[in-house]
Amino acid sequence: MKISYQWLKDFIEIDDQSPELIAQKLTHAGLEVEQLHSYEAIPGSLEGLVIGEVLQCEPHPNADKLKKTLVDVGGEQPLPIVCGAPNVAKGQKVVVALVGATLYPKEGEPFKIKKAKIRGEVSEGMICAEDEIGLGSSHEGIMVLDTDLPNGTPAAEFFKPYRDTVLEIGLTPNRADAASHLGVARDLKALLGRPIQMPPVQQTFPETPSPISVEIENPEACPRYAGLLIEGVAVAPSPAWLQERLKAIGLKPINNVVDVTNYVMHELGQPMHAFDADRIEGNKIIVKTLDEGTPFVTLDEEERKLSAHDLMICDAVKPLAMAGVMGGLHSGIQDTTRRVFLESAYFNPTYIRKTSARHALKTDASFRFERGTDPNMVLVALQRAAYLITQLAGGKAAAQIVDVYPQPIENRRFFVKYERLFTLLGIEIPKEEVRRILTGLDILIEEETEEGMALSVPPYRVDVTGTADIAEEVLRIYGFDRVPLSEHLHTSFISPFPAPAQDKKHLQDTIADFLASQGLYEVITNSLTKPAYAGRLSESAWGQPVRMLNYTSEEISVLRSSLLFSGLEVIAHNLNRQRKYQKIFEFGRVYFQTTDGAYGEKERLGIWITGNRHPEHWSQATQATQYHDLATIVERLLKRMRVNKFTKAAAPADQWGYGIRYLVEGHAVATAGLVQPKITRMLDIKQEVWFADVDWDWLTAHYHDDYTARELPKFPFVRRDLSLVLDKQVTWQEVEALAWRTENKLLKHINLFSVYEGNNIGEGKKSYAISFILQDETKTLTDKVIDKTMQKLMDAYKKELGAVIRE
Question: What pTM, to 2 d.p., does this model score?
Answer without folding.
Answer: 0.66
